[in-house]
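WARN retry 2 of 3 for item q-0093 after timeout on previous attempt; input resubmitted unchanged.
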Amino acid sequence: MQVSLQALKAFESAARQGSFKLAAEELSLTPTAISHHVSNLESRLNVNLFHRHGRRISLTGTGKRLAEATSDGFRKIDSALEEVMKAGSAVRVTTTSSLAAMVLIPAQHEFEQANPDFSMEVSTGESVDSQSHIIPIRFGDASVAEDSDIISYESFNVFGAYGMKPPSWSNDSITLFTTEWKNRLLPDPPLAAWLEKNGLDGSNIKLKKLDQEFLGIQQAMAQNGLVFCSTTLTKRLLEANLLQQFETEPVKSDLCYYVPNKDSYETRSAARFLNWIEDIFKQ
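OK item q-0093 returned
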């Protein structure tokens, strides 16, 4: 059976307020219009929803049951609308600590300047968030991720503090920071492939492993050694003359950044953000 949504809204307000007059004020209608909507609803349902005592009204037993159902339904609708509105005006992103610290947070102001109608909120976490209004950018095995979800394939290189003397790969004893992922299922950083590509045997390299890439980057910036890490994370630092790369070739890896079910994000803010972050990775 189809009934008027406006009539249900008029009934729900009158039932909650206990007055046609107060319902009229809440809904910006006249008491006569409220009474008309309620009467039409009663006629449609073939029941009495209110006892009328002059200008006073009280719910019948049937009216009480319908009032509970309509109040609960409208609360759920209001809650859903509020969530949709928030999702439409704010981009909520969860990602790894390293990508947040080295890329997203430094670029947050740029995104909000380019998109003044939207704000961006960044949090960190290693598990995929199931909430539909949160965009998870994950670091993982490219062979496992769906091709359509991948936003960047990762390559690796060695970096050092800006202005430091280039290392002598054949003579110097070199401290090199690299990453041992918390998730042991991930492919290792491709150090062996990098050494081979650059014609190095690595015998004079002392490895120090940390569990986050940005920690190794910080060690390199503090001139405590070099860092072998993702080229994505160092772009801004190279541009700002905080890090430098040497005459070595980067190497591709089996790792990538991806957004699970990327095509399922339909709000304008999410679409704008995803286009923006893909451009950031391509730069």
